[in-house]
Design goal:
single chain; mainly alpha; two-stranded antiparallel ribbon; 2 helices; 48% helix; elongated; binds zinc ion
Length: 80
């Protein structure tokens, strides 16, 4: 009686990046925090895509992301 429920737990979450099932349920699904406050968080992601993105983010953190963030701060400051 339980086998069907175990195989298909209601809603299957699909990874927003690769469209594969994340293999996780709602409570422990992976969402990545946005780089900027006005962005929404990215997810749910499967573990593979989440790791990939975290690695990429760390690689670029000192370069483009920081530059972009700095530009936005300058822009805001200029308007004040
Ligand atoms: Zn994925």
């Amino acid at each position: 009686m339980m086998t069907h429920a175990n195989h298909y737990p209601g809603t299957v979450q699909l990874c927003v990046s690769c469209n594969e099932p994340t293999g996780r349920c709602k409570e422990d699904s992976i969402y990545l925090e946005p780089e900027f406050e006005h962005q929404s968080s990215l997810g749910p992601l499967c573990e593979e895509c989440a790791e990939e993105r975290i690695t990429l983010a760390n690689d670029h953190e000192q370069q483009e992301v920081t530059n972009e963030a700095t530009n936005k701060i300058h822009h805001k400051t200029a308007r004040l």
